Amino acid sequence: MSPASTGASAVVGARSPVPVTDSRMAPGGPGYRRMSFALFLAGVATFALLYSTQALLPLISGEFGVAASEASWTVAAATGGLALFVLPMSALSERFGRRTVMTGSLAVAVAVGLLVPFAPSLPALVVLRAVQGAALAGLPASATAYLAEEVRPRVLVTAIGLFVAGNSVGGMSGRVITGWVAQEWGWRVAVGVIGAIAVACAVAFRLLLPAPKHFTAGSLKPRVLLGTVRRHLSDPLLRRLYAIGALFMTVFGGVYTVIGYRLTEAPFSLPQGIIGSIFLVYLVGTVSASTAGRLVGRLGRRGALYLAGGTTATGLAVSLAPSLPLVLLGLVLITAGFFAGHAVASSAVSRTATTGRAQASALYQSAYYIGSSAGSTVGAIAFHAGGWAGTVAVGLLAVLGVVTITVIGTRAARAVAVGQPA
């Protein structure tokens, strides 16, 4: 384990004093509330757009006459596009600034979102969604890098947790709104409504986000970028965090891609509007993400990850019951565990990387959304082959991976503590 990693491991969740001359933002200080709300809205727009078709997959399957595994590409293409472009977009943010890149990304994404309702075929819809995902790639890594530069270290986990909470609200509201709108007017009108909401969020974001005061422009030279990426990938702690983010998102992507199909079938046979309302459980994720800082303070980073993984696995097991209340309880636990784990892992990346923060965050986001694409596709294939139990099996394997990686990190930290090689 590198010295930087060891230091970051020791301070995650710590409350070391910050000099009074520190000009970065903190709760109660100038600009903090505006910044928090602006990035919250960015998170809302990002997740609402990114997953705008997920709750509508049964309707999309019906219109185009395709199976769940084919319709799921409207989700996988968006998350895959984000995963592929997040590193190049992070490089642009190092050169031109976080706020500039985030603003441009949202502008392109909402413009494409207004075209999505007019897609004439499934391939055209998949292409538009891929472009939309690529545009959104400028948001996640740039946002966490902005926070790492502009917010005091002792409140970084909390600040990133609020951004992740915006993700959960966007994911929840997008699915609930599309469910009810689609029930009355079809899926095309539903995604058009999400596009209009995202436009409002993008405008408010640009008006509210304070100008950065601690940004230093970097280089766009490929050699410099590759060197930064190589350093991050050589850090054992960062590699573990990237894998944890990907595995958590594999669970989440698979579950929420397939759940609509499960609930339309017997014994539930729910209408589209009710299925959309199921996503109100995302509010649990809003709470668990925003309280991740306190969780790390009490249990430490690895303890918080163990708890998040255990909660997710318990939810997967409970969701197997042929009872709607138990399915809902399972979704609550899965959502709480996922968002807590994501907030802890992503904030640890920002604390670990002392240079090239946008690239470090971009690598995490790339792994995270590769996990989402894999979960959406593999989860749908598993559902087609073995029903809901197949999707749950994929999720449990991913959680086992999270726990295994965290155990490896725990042993490495103990080895360092007693002076042995990690």
TrEMBL record:
Membrane-spanning ranges: 34-51, 71-89, 101-120, 126-148, 155-173, 185-209, 241-261, 273-292, 304-321, 327-350, 362-382, 388-408
Protein origin, superkingdom: Bacteria
The name this protein goes by in its record: MFS transporter
Keyword Membrane: yes
Localisation per UniProt entry: Cell membrane
Keyword list, A-Z: Cell membrane, Membrane, Transmembrane, Transmembrane helix, Transport
Similarity-based family: Belongs to the major facilitator superfamily.
Annotated Pfam families: MFS_1
Bilayer topology annotation: Multi-pass membrane protein
InterPro entries: MFS, MFS_dom, MFS_trans_sf, Sugar_transporter_CS
The species this protein was found in: Streptomyces cylindrosporus
Keyword rRNA processing: no
Sequence ranges assigned to domain Major facilitator superfamily (MFS) profile in this UniProt record: 31-413
